[in-house]
Design brief:
By secondary structure, the protein is α/β, with parallel strands linked by helices. It has one domain. It has four helices and six strands, in the order αβββαβαβαβ. Helix 2 crosses helix 3. It is globular, with a radius of gyration of 18 Å.
Length: 190
């Protein structure tokens, strides 16, 4: 975790998580990007409320590491305030607004490390039946990053632990002809 690394290296950081753990992790402040203001889609009659900047300091970050809730695939594992359960269009609109907010609150020299996965429509679905319309691929993320003023300089493929692929899981994936995800991407932008 980023806060652990910063603590070990005696570096300052602001860290936020949806889960409040004051007894075990007091250095990580609770924050849900949509907070009490529920994100409202553009096509509704209410006003669209985007993300708000959670840092109370006038200092601007040198590095922003963003690991947002996964789109759709784990919505039931996150709080109901999470953006994970939003439809694809609204999820991407929220991230686009968030990227713009980050850019407005960053230095000209700030780097953004956006951790994400190519979320294809693959959960419990054979690869041949995946739908492009339900997927969010790396080029979708790059498009909204660029629109918000961030320009990618590196794309790093970060391997995930193979421990998640137990014999039972692999067997079920083979029977259903499901492709497994073995890495996440880190898009580095400035």
């Amino acid at each position: 975790m980023t806060p652990d690394t910063c603590l070990a290296l005696n570096r300052r950081c602001w860290a936020f998580d949806m889960i409040d753990r004051p007894e075990t992790r007091p250095e990580i402040e609770p924050h849900t990007w949509i907070s009490a203001k529920r994100f409202t889609p553009l096509n509704s009659k209410t006003i669209q409320l985007g993300p708000s900047w959670p840092v109370n300091s006038k200092e601007k970050p040198d590095l922003i590491i963003l690991d947002p809730p996964y789109f759709d695939k784990k919505a039931e594992d996150y709080s109901e305030k999470s953006i994970s359960g939003l439809p694809k269009k609204e999820y991407m609109e929220f991230l686009e607004a968030l990227f713009a907010l980050l850019k407005r609150n960053a230095k000209k020299t700030t780097w953004l490390a956006f951790i994400n996965a190519d979320w294809r429509d693959f959960q419990n679905k054979p690869a041949a039946e995946e739908s492009h319309g339900e997927s969010i691929l790396i080029d979708n993320y790059l498009k909204i990053l660029n629109k918000a003023g961030w320009w990618h300089t590196h794309i790093i493929q970060a391997p995930m632990s193979a421990e998640r692929f137990t014999a039972v899981v692999v067997s079920a994936m083979q029977k259903k002809r499901i492709l497994g995800v073995t890495s996440r991407y880190v898009i580095i932008s400035s």
